[in-house]
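FORM 7B: Structural annotation worksheet

SECTION A. Query
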Amino acid sequence: MKLIVVSGLAGAGKSVVLQTLEDIGYFSIDNFPVAMLGDVSPATLTTEGLDYDRLALGIDTRAGRERLADLPERLDALRAGGIDVELIFVTAEQDTILSRFDQTRRRHPLASGDLALPEAIAVDREALGAIEAAADIAIDTTRTNIHELRDIVRNRVEFGQQGTVAVLLQSFGFKNGVPAGVDFCFDARCLPNPHWQPTLQQATGKDTGVIAFFENDPATQAYLRDIGTFFETWLPVFAGADRAYVTIAVGCTGGNHRSVYLVEQLAEQLRAHYQPVLVRHNEIG
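SECTION B. Predicted structure
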């Protein structure tokens, strides 16, 4: 059995993580009672109806402070009992959580007549402190949207292994803003733009005409070599430091030609050494 426990602050994205785990084959249960993990053996979990190859459990402050304090010890006991356990913790800055509750008009689970939203968030963070410290994966979603969070979870859980790096490459248009949650961002607006070629205006960096345009441009090829050399040097360092995932963004003006071409070429280079290498083109789908 592979068991993933997902915990984190209300409003930080725990539900998105659980939904993503469902999408990749986990049976997911939110607001799971910690007490049900009492007898820590695969056999007992089977008799309790939890005999799934892949099981994801959402546990947060609704479980109660006293039971939360026991959670890290219970998970260690599950590991000792032969279950592969991983703990994911999702967090975000207070202003971000405040904004999310304001936008969705949801009620914070700890908010009450005596406890305003900012205080409820502070109580939530304090109650989950020991769990955050014990997490195998900690994800800060302050500057991460839903799609990026899903990519992070897929990269780390479905593909990521200790000592390897899962890579997400994104193309984007600066006119629409830099994507959130990016580790490295490269600006390709200095390169020749096929947009000004009438026959290439409606094409993208994945089309043969645009590819030929860039293959014959020395500046673009030099730019591509320099970025490739940078990651050839530094991605192994990230892997050695147990970094689970790296997000790389390349932008141009509209996000259709230069950035798309460079991302496609970088992905091909990196796939020779890293798995997975995922690609997202923000402006062309």
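SECTION C. Observations
The chain is about 40% helix and 20% strand. The longest strand covers residues 84-91.

SECTION D. Sign-off
Analyst initials: ____
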